[in-house]
Write a structure and sequence with these properties.
Strands 1-9-8-7-5-6 form a 6-stranded parallel beta sheet, with helices on both faces. It contains 9 helices and 9 strands. The protein is α/β, with parallel strands linked by helices and 270 residues long.
């Protein structure tokens, strides 16, 4: 019987964990998002709804193309006071925004220092989407050690952090990406025990390449669909995360949890 790996089952548990953290600290958040971008707006709205439930303060600034200076000045002013979330893309000056973020105010966990801590073995520094994958793997007790894991994508926020996670859990990890021949990607997928889709490309691996014994973790989102590109039928896979309701159902919680973690670290350093 095929298992649907729902992230919704874990949301109550994660919220209770955040409530416990809320009793000890009150981090403030700053969101910078591109003006008029529906995906970025939806992403930020989800986190802000959670912050309202937790009664945590936040501020947001929409960044219009060609008018980035206002957002950069705001970030310069608040970067040591707030946990900063960049909802990308932020136009031609995106890297300027990223360079201004302090490691202890980076709940996306994308600064060089936080990535270095992750690759040194500290999984507390996993970005939110990667941490959501870890939560689902642990909750459903998906076997990892010694298994063949294929990561489809190598982004700084998902693919590479997941490489660190699965390697730490003693999996045999292969990473493929857009610069690799599609036939090679398909062959690698067919040979894997677990396939993690995080390329942002829907349907990159055709349906017939998957096997009934495989687990698929889908980190993509395309207007209500994931990178998988189809709804699996019974026994077509061993298990898979639905979109929506899978990995993405937990991402907001882990952005906020990362904010608590870094806020606590910064307080220790005062």
């Amino acid at each position: 019987m095929m298992t649907i790996l729902s992230g919704k089952e874990l949301r109550k548990e994660r919220f209770e964990a955040l409530l416990a953290l809320r009793k000890k600290a009150q981090p403030s958040f700053l969101f910078l998002l591109p003006k008029g971008d529906k995906d970025a707006r939806s992403y930020v709205d989800g986190i802000e709804r959670l912050l309202r439930r937790l009664d945590l303060p936040f501020q947001e600034e929409e960044v219009a193309e060609g008018e980035e200076e206002k957002g950069l000045l705001l970030l310069q002013r608040e970067r040591k006071a707030k946990q900063v979330v960049l909802a990308r893309p932020l136009g031609r000056r995106e890297e300027e925004f990223a360079r201004l973020i302090e490691a202890d105010h980076d709940p996306d966990m994308t600064t060089d220092r936080n990535i270095g801590r992750l690759f040194a073995g500290d999984l507390d520094y996993l970005p939110a989407t990667a941490k959501s994958v870890m939560a689902i793997v642990d909750h459903y007790r998906i076997p990892i050690q010694g298994r063949k894991v294929l990561l489809v994508g190598r982004s700084r926020t998902v693919g590479l952090p997941l490489f660190a996670f699965f390697q730490r859990r003693n999996a045999m990890v292969t990473v493929v990406h857009s610069r690799i021949d599609r036939r090679t990607i398909i062959e690698s997928a067919t040979e894997s025990d677990l396939v993690v889709l995080c390329s942002g490309v829907e349907g990159l691996i055709p349906r017939q390449a998957f096997r009934p014994c495989q687990v698929v973790l889908d980190c993509g989102y395309h207007d209500g669909r994931g990178d998988l590109g189809f709804l699996p039928e019974e026994s077509e896979l061993s298990a898979y995360t639905p979109v929506p309701g899978g990995i993405g159902a937990l991402t907001s919680s882990f952005v906020v949890e990362n904010g608590f973690f870094l806020h606590s670290n910064s307080m220790k350093n005062i």
